[in-house]
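Message: Study each token:
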Amino acid sequence: MSDLKDRVKRATATDEQQPEQAPVTDLAVNDSALQWLQSRATYFTDALPRHVDRAHFMSVALSIMPNLEKCTHASVHQAFLACARFGLEPDGKQAAIIPYGDTATFQPMYEGYIELMYRHPRVDSVHFGWIREKDQWDYTPTEPSPRDFFHKPRVDLSEQERGKVILAYAFAWIDGRRSQVILLNQSQAEAIRNKYSNAYKKAERNGKQDSAWHTDFDAMWAKSCVRRLVKVVPTSTELAELIRADDDADDSQAAPPVIRGTVIARNDQEDKGEQQTQAPSWPKPAQPGSTSEGGEQA
């Protein structure tokens, strides 16, 4: 009898000691995002340049959808369309789609600028790099190219051992000749930020500190350096449009619908007595055996 009681006690104790099961992932959100993207796939794939793999672009787009679930459908649609139009993947390297409140915003990164520069038939290659404190480097602007600049990183040391970053640089090879070298230190990057970035100024005023300059200073430093290189490389219409789109994306007041999405300002809504924009809800995934409806208009 005592053996039975002991067995029951041990079984009960085992049940109590079992760890709580992790919550089951709700796949409905991913299914809804996939359904929404599939309903608009033609818009994006038709806008892509021929050299961009369509399946890979859509896969990258799907991977970032959880970050955009609170954004309006219209702004998400327009941000993906801007990425597709320039042939830049929204992977955070070539381009990023950043949620500002309920608005998904397209923002090209420095690798995106390099990608568009490289597409020009006269551009052989584009180079970007960081110079750290213990690297060997020299810049003598009076020397002829390419003897005016050299950089030899200390590959025998870790990044921490090489010291902090002191300079960003970029240059291109055009028709077999090296362009001017663009050098940008941290103070110069901060001066560009303080003078030109409306998103940074707005974030500072609001006390949110959620602009790209706040969250990823090095990426914006790199982009500022590469953007200066635009002045010394052959400029295509596509590259000029990317610069305008980038500037518009930074200016939350003047950004056009193709970048910002057709979102009515909250102040205008209050003046007109309209209701506030409701949080978007992704379409429910079709149930097995049911007939799926066409995607909603952005």
Notes: The mean pLDDT is 80. The radius of gyration is 25 Å. The chain has 14 helices and eight strands.
